C-alpha cells in the first residue's frame, strides 16, 4: 500500500470519523462496541489500515447509519488500496469530493469551461446540471447537493480558496443575460471574502497549456489530492508524481491570470456588457 494514503481510504476514514462523531461516540466507546482496540479504530479512521467490508458494515450498524448514507459509504470499501481512483460515469458532485473539501486547508480550482461548482449561483448550477439525460427530479437533487456543498467556503475555519477562470467561462452565456449578470455579481461578492481569491485568464494571453478542469486540495497533516473532471470521467490523484505535476500547472496558470483586484474589475466590465445586451 502506498505511503501516500490512497484517496479512497482517506475518504472512507473521514466518513467513518464523521459518522462516529454524529452518533455521539468517542473512539473508546466505539472500539468497545466493535470489539477492536482503540489503536485499530484510529488507524482505520486515519487511513492507515485497509478496513474490510464486514468491519465497515459493523461500524455503520453501531453508528445508526442507514439508507443512502450507508450505501454511499459501503461503496467506498471497494478497492481501498488502489493506486488511483478514476472511472467513467461517476455521478455529478460525487460524495467523496465534499468530504475532502471540508477537510482541506486550501483549494485551487481551474475552470476552463464553466464557473466552478463552489461558486455557482442556483440558476447557473441548474443550467449546468441540466445538460445530459438527467430527469428534472435528478437535477433538483444534484442542485441541492451542490448548493449545500458550497457552505464549505463560509464555515468557521473555511479553507483558503482560489479560483482560476478562463475568460471563455465568462463570455460564453449559460442562459439569459440576466442569469449571467447574477452569476458575475455573485463572483464579485464572493471575492470580497477574506479566504476567497478569483483570478481571470484573459484572451489576450493567447493559447496556453490547458489541463482541463481540476481542483487541487491541500491538507494540514496529509498529502495533497487532485480532483480531475472530464466528460464522462472523473476521479482523484494522490501519487506524488501526479500531484507535483499539478503544482507546476497551478503555478503556470496563476502567472497567466490577472490579479485579484484586476479580475474583479474584469468581472464588473463583463457584467456591464451583459446588461447592455
Please explain how this structure is put together:
The chain has helices at residues 7-22, 27-34, 38-45, 53-63, 67-76, 96-103, 122-129, 136-149, 167-171, 177-190, 240-256, 260-276, and strands at residues 85-88, 106-111, 160-166, 196-201, 214-218, 225-230, 233-237. It has 277 residues and is of the alpha/beta class. The chain has a seven-stranded mixed sheet with strand order 1-7-6-5-2-3-4, with helices on both faces. The chain has twelve helices and seven strands. The longest helix is centred in the last third of the chain and has 17 residues, at 240-256.
In short:
Helices cover 49% and strands 14% of the residues.
Write a concise keyword list for the protein shown above.
single chain; 277 residues; alpha/beta; seven-stranded mixed β-sheet
Summarize the topology:
Elements lengths: L6 H16 L4 H8 L3 H8 L7 H11 L3 H10 L8 E4 L7 H8 L2 E6 L10 H8 L6 H14 L10 E7 H5 L5 H14 L5 E6 L12 E5 L6 E6 L2 E5 L2 H17 L3 H17 L1
Parallel strand pairs: 2-3, 3-4
Antiparallel strand pairs: 1-7, 2-5, 5-6, 6-7
Helix pairs in contact: 1-4, 1-6, 2-3, 7-8, 10-12
Instruction: Tell me the series of helices and strands, N- to C-terminal.
Output: HHHHHEHEHHEHHEEEEHH
Strand content: 5-15%
How many helical elements?
12
Oligomer: single chain
Radius of gyration: 20 Å
Strand order of the largest sheet: 1-7-6-5-2-3-4
**Mean model confidence by pLDDT:** 88
Shape: elongated
Helical fraction: 40-55%
The biggest beta sheet is recorded as: 7 strands, mixed
> Count the strands?
7
Distance between the termini: 56 Å
* Unreliable sequence segments: none
Helix/sheet category:
alpha/beta
Amino acid at each position: 500500500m502506498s505511503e501516500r494514503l490512497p484517496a479512497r481510504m482517506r475518504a472512507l476514514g473521514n466518513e467513518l470519523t464523521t459518522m462516529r462523531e454524529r452518533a455521539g461516540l468517542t473512539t473508546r466507546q466505539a472500539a468497545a462496541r466493535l470489539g477492536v482496540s482503540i489503536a485499530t479504530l484510529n488507524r482505520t479512521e486515519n487511513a492507515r489500515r485497509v478496513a474490510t467490508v464486514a468491519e465497515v458494515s459493523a461500524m455503520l450498524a453501531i453508528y445508526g447509519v442507514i439508507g443512502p448514507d450507508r450505501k454511499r459509504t459501503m461503496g467506498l470499501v471497494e478497492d481501498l488500496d488502489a493506486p488511483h481512483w478514476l472511472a467513467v460515469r461517476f455521478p455529478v458532485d460525487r460524495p467523496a469530493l465534499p468530504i475532502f473539501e471540508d477537510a482541506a486547508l486550501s483549494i485551487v480550482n481551474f475552470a476552463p469551461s464553466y464557473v466552478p461548482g463552489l461558486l455557482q449561483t442556483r440558476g447557473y448550477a441548474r443550467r449546468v446540471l441540466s445538460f445530459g439525460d438527467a430527469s428534472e427530479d435528478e437535477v433538483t437533487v444534484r442542485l441541492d447537493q451542490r448548493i449545500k456543498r458550497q457552505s464549505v467556503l463560509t464555515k468557521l475555519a473555511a479553507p483558503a480558496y482560489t479560483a482560476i477562470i478562463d475568460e471563455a467561462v465568462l463570455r460564453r452565456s449559460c442562459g439569459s443575460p440576466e442569469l449571467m449578470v447574477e452569476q458575475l455579481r455573485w463572483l464579485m461578492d464572493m471575492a470580497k471574502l477574506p479566504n476567497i481569491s478569483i483570478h481571470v485568464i484573459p484572451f489576450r494571453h493567447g493559447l496556453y497549456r490547458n489541463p482541463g478542469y481540476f481542483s487541487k486540495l491541500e491538507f494540514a497533516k496529509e498529502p495533497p489530492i487532485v480532483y480531475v473532471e472530464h466528460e464522462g470521467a472523473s476521479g482523484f490523484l494522490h501519487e506524488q508524481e501526479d500531484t507535483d505535476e499539478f503544482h507546476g500547472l497551478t503555478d503556470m496558470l496563476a502567472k497567466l491570470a490577472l490579479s485579484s483586484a484586476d479580475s474583479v474589475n474584469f468581472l464588473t466590465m463583463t457584467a456591464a456588457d451583459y446588461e447592455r445586451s
